[in-house]
């Protein structure tokens, strides 16, 4: 087990997941060191030590960046872009692969006990009605972001093999919580209207994970001996259809569901005509993952229900408070 007096270093500490993780670790009594690009990052919780390390994609971390650190969590990443260009693919590799490998090499050189890398369930693909991904399934990503994360995972296993650094990889699906942007935020705004919504006939199933649930899984994986060298998919305790998700969000907003059962095929056709095929895939497609191994190996269960996670998202409650 990790020494609770030893610090955990976190990259991406000012981000959506990073802030929640810092609070979770601090609440557990673990000192936290934020490895940042610049000397004056914004949005860090009180009590986090800041160590500027520059851009890891440009140069390896200085040897003293990890002094006194027991383990490191790597969250910093370039995330999705809607219409990636060749330049975006290069940037994904630079940030998500090169920087990740350099951090792992620095952690190994310093003799750290554990590195946790937060990847994405999208390394397995984009899902489907009859697909339930397991962590042992092949890595078959379909976009530049997923490909960069899959390549980073391979690079990390290479560092682990060469140096003996124990690496744990977590693959979450879509993360929602206070301060979320993009898809989950757009859906919450759409629900918070008086309009009927045409999604009553949608019967898909999607795995999601609440922000604080993911932070808890990371914290547990840091110290679990069984997690060394393993890759885990991680999710909430239940999957949900788009229709059911809207019902629950609107109930928490104090609104009636007001769902109209329009056939998904009709909606998909309309969205594709409008050039919104990706939106149709996210609204009507299924994406399911199997998280049984992390529950079995680590004795971990999600600390929040889906409804509790949604309530925190809608309330804007500070992560892990």
From TrEMBL:
Occurrences of domain NAD-dependent epimerase/dehydratase (ranges): 8-231
InterPro entries found in the cross-reference section: Epimerase_deHydtase, NAD(P)-bd_dom_sf
Domain of life: Bacteria
Residues spanning the membrane: none
Database matches in Pfam families: Epimerase
The family this protein is said to belong to: Belongs to the NAD(P)-dependent epimerase/dehydratase family.
Protein name: NAD-dependent epimerase/dehydratase family protein
Species name: Roseospira navarrensis
